[in-house]
Design a protein that fits this description.
It contains eight helices and eight strands, in the order E-E-H-E-H-E-H-E-H-H-E-E-H-H-H-E. By secondary structure, the protein is of the alpha/beta class. It is globular and about 50 Å long.
């Protein structure tokens, strides 16, 4: 039998989710976010890009506002009202001091106990490859958590009023190495609605109706680690900290 996943910690109030694109959080993670907001916790989103390079048949200047509006609607489905976009260029985000500083600033300003990000490794699993943006933003998020707590890294942030802040945990989603999980049996429908809100993007991906696609993908994701969490639909995380 595979090792059982532990429940995620519950002794926290604020979380910040840092990802590269609109829709990144909706392929599973939003079910956990819905569970947390239903318990009265505060979750905010920080996206490096507006996802403008994500729809082949739509020029970036037209795709960006559409994808932004769909992300705002998607977040609202799971109780998130704070969504910020950093306006890095979709598809060519680079890990480096500029990105780390922007993320560290957001962590210091939002003061989350929990930082959530997406798989930063080279692949999702055997036979797959992770995108450059996911790798860059995920790695920068891990670095920025340490940067945010060190007053001597990016000292200019202190001059801007962003005092050091130490998050307690980082939760990496979409990982092949989950250690913890959140039961989403009660919030699975909200997770489906959250992904379905990305209608323009989903309709560009396939001929499958967008709502059917959303349900299929979210339900599949919710059962990936269920056998390690008492058979319950869940979102798995690799917890650091």
């Amino acid at each position: 039998m595979p090792d059982e996943l532990a429940p995620m910690p519950t002794d926290w109030q604020r979380a910040l989710a840092i990802v590269a694109h609109p829709d990144d959080l909706e392929y599973g993670v939003s079910g956990a976010i819905a569970a947390w907001t239903a318990e009265g916790r505060e979750v905010s989103y920080l996206l490096a890009t507006r996802g403008e390079a994500g729809i082949d048949g739509l020029p970036p200047e037209e795709a960006a506002p559409l994808r932004q509006s769909e992300q705002l609607a998607s977040a609202a489905e799971v109780g998130v009202t704070s969504v910020e976009f950093l306006d890095y260029r979709d598809g060519v985000v680079e890990h480096g001091p500029a990105l780390r500083q922007d993320l560290a600033r957001a962590i210091r300003e939002r003061r989350p106990e929990l930082v959530i990000t997406l798989n930063h490794r080279e692949s999702w699993g055997p036979g797959s490859w992770n995108s450059a943006d996911h790798r860059a933003v995920g790695t920068a998020a891990l670095d920025a958590v340490a940067d945010a707590g060190n007053r001597w890294i990016f000292p200019e942030l202190i001059a801007q009023g962003a005092q050091p802040w130490e998050a307690r945990w980082i939760a990496v989603a979409g990982t092949r190495h989950p250690t913890h999980a959140v039961d989403i049996g009660a919030t699975l429908e909200r997770a489906v609605a959250s992904l379905a809100a990305h209608r323009t993007y989903l309709e560009a991906l396939s001929d499958e109706p967008h709502d059917r696609h959303a349900r299929r993908v979210v339900e599949q994701a919710a059962h990936l680690a269920a056998d390690r969490f008492g058979g319950r639909p869940c979102v798995g995380f690799e917890l650091i900290g």
